[in-house]
Amino acid sequence: MFSKNEYIIYGSTGVCKIIDIVKKKFGFNKEREYYILKPAYDTNSTIYAPIDNDKISIRKIMTKEEVYDLIKTMPDNETIWIDDMNLRKETYNEILKKGNKKDIVKLIKTLYMEKLRKKEEGKKLNAGDEKIMNEAEKLLHEEFALVLNIKVDEVLPFILGELSPEEKQNLNF
Predict the structure, then answer these.
(1) Interior angle at CA 87, CA 126 and CA 9, nearest 5
(2) CA distance 8 to 57
(3) Against a cut of 0.90, is the pTM above it?
(4) Which CATH number describes the domain made up of 7-59?
(5) CATH number of this structure's domain 62-170
(6) Which of 161, 136, 148 is nearest to 62 (CA)?
(7) At residue 173, does pLDDT exceed 60?
(8) CA 77, CA 137: separation in Å to the nearest integer?
(9) Which residues, listed in sequence order, are joined to residue 47 by a DSSP beta bridge?
């Protein structure tokens, strides 16, 4: 169980702060315990997340050490491209929903590599894949920004600054 004022990652919403923990009854449902969440980068929203919900992933945010370790593994991550568009969309959305940071990095790398491949052919990444890539980058960048105490738009330059020229080449930067 998490504590009040703790930052967590809530499914595909991303970084949220636990504002409170309350017992509440919604509609005809039985009374349950909820985390009241405020997304860190969307202060107009409030989310009531059931504590006993196992359908949406809730996890602790990374530590600085975990962020640095994850950055170092980025060049070596395999890609997870799926040719079937429907299966790809379903699988990639599931990755976003589960919020596993290593899988999200693989997803970003996969879609970035596909975007480069398409660009070489004079084409663009399809809209669905572009949307998923943007969501994945948003999730990762917001978490990195909070952990590293930097702005979201400073995350990519920070990551690139941590990689050697050889590692950047493996990522095609």
Answers:
(1) 85
(2) 10
(3) no
(4) 2.40.10
(5) 1.20.58.1290
(6) 148
(7) no
(8) 16
(9) 37
